[in-house]
From TrEMBL:
Entry keywords, A to Z: Membrane, Transmembrane, Transmembrane helix
Superkingdom of source: Bacteria
Matching Pfam families: PqiA (PF04403)
Residues passing through the membrane, by range: 48-68, 95-120, 141-159, 171-189
Coiled coil (residue ranges): none
Protein name in the entry: Paraquat-inducible protein A
Source organism (scientific name): Nitrosospira briensis
């Protein structure tokens, strides 16, 4: 159901309400099913772009620098995330390598680039032809970005390896930790509010 400036449809039950006027940080709920209908995002909207840019910087650091440095019997080795993908592929695990590449490299990058582009574009000019495609792309790839799952797996592996080798966390591991926190904050922003800004500017 398409929204018009004075009406708002509930995403859960499709009940149509007159758009409420919200104060700072106020939330409106559907009178039929109790689902969240509208939330004041004026304060968060101004901070989501810097958060997304900071996430992109952490993403670059996490993928450029080594994740961990390990020394075993005098032999030291280090690897980056991309290096681990190539290693998995060379060890005969192309499916696992593809899964790691998609969920920790490609999808988080697509999510961040699409969100940054949409936020900058809507602030400058409002609606544009690529808006629909990028918003759908953002909604599609968001559940598949599994940086936090990867980080948890690395931490568990490092704890187990400490009994066999000397393990030193790399810069990328700390960047992944910061990226996980930043992505959690960025992901709480509902893309439909970007639509709202665009429609208001177009009107």
């Amino acid at each position: 159901m398409q929204e018009v400036p004075d009406l708002l449809a509930c995403e859960e039950c499709d009940a149509v309400h007159r758009r409420p006027t919200l104060g700072r940080n106020e939330v409106a709920f559907c009178s039929c099913c109790g689902a969240e209908l509208e939330r004041d995002m004026s304060a968060y909207r101004t901070s989501v772009l810097p958060l997304a840019v900071a996430s992109l910087f952490m993403y670059v650091i996490a993928n450029v620098f080594p994740i961990v440095e390990m020394e075993l019997q005098g032999i030291a080795s280090r690897t980056t995330l991309i290096g681990s993908v190539f290693f998995l592929n060379s060890e005969g695990m192309p499916f696992v390598a593809s899964l790691v590449l998609a969920t920790t490299v490609l999808f988080p990058l697509l999510q961040l680039l699409a969100l940054i582009y949409l936020l900058v574009a809507v602030t400058r000019s409002g609606y544009h032809p690529a808006f629909n495609l990028l918003t759908r792309l953002l909604q599609t790839v968001r559940p598949w970005g599994m940086v936090e799952v990867f980080l948890l797996g690395v931490i568990v592996a490092l704890v187990k390896l400490t009994n066999m080798a000397t393990v030193v966390p790399g810069v990328a591991l700390w960047a992944f930790g910061a990226l996980t926190i930043l992505l959690a904050a960025v992901s709480s922003f509902n893309p439909r509010y970007i639509w709202r800004i665009a429609l208001l500017k177009q009107a």
